[in-house]
Amino acid sequence: MTKLLFIAYTLFLQSDLASINAQQAEELKKLQETDELSRLTTILSIALITILILLTISLVKNSKLQNEIKRLKKQLD
């Protein structure tokens, strides 16, 4: 009887550990997916910021050129 209880208890522990292991594997998979999504979001954010910076630089240069053209036109008049 004691052997039977021990075997049943051991089987219970093994199934419980397998269940816990499966849950942890699922949580790990979700964390890895979240990590991949975070990396992608970071890369896209950096790309967007870079584009905005380049656009701002272009607008500043364009504005300076327009001011210079206006100044030269005034000198001609």
Tell me the major beta sheet. none
Total E-strand runs? 0
Helix coverage percent: over 70%
Task: Please count the helical segments.
Answer: 1
Q: Characterize the overall form.
A: rod-shaped
Structural class: mainly alpha
Radius of gyration: 33 Å
Average pLDDT reading: 88
- Which stretches are low in confidence, meaning pLDDT under 50 for 5 or more residues running? none
Strand content: under 5%
Note down, in words, how this protein is organized:
The model has no long low-confidence stretch (mean pLDDT 88). The protein has a domain at 30-77. It is rod-shaped. The longest helix is centred in the middle third of the chain and has 75 residues, at 2-76. The chain has 77 residues and is mainly alpha-helical. The chain is built from 1 helix and no strands.
Spell out the key features of this protein.
about 80 residues, mainly alpha, 1 helix
Layout of helices and strands, plus pairs?
Blueprint: H1 2-76
Summarize the structure.
By secondary structure, the protein is mainly α.
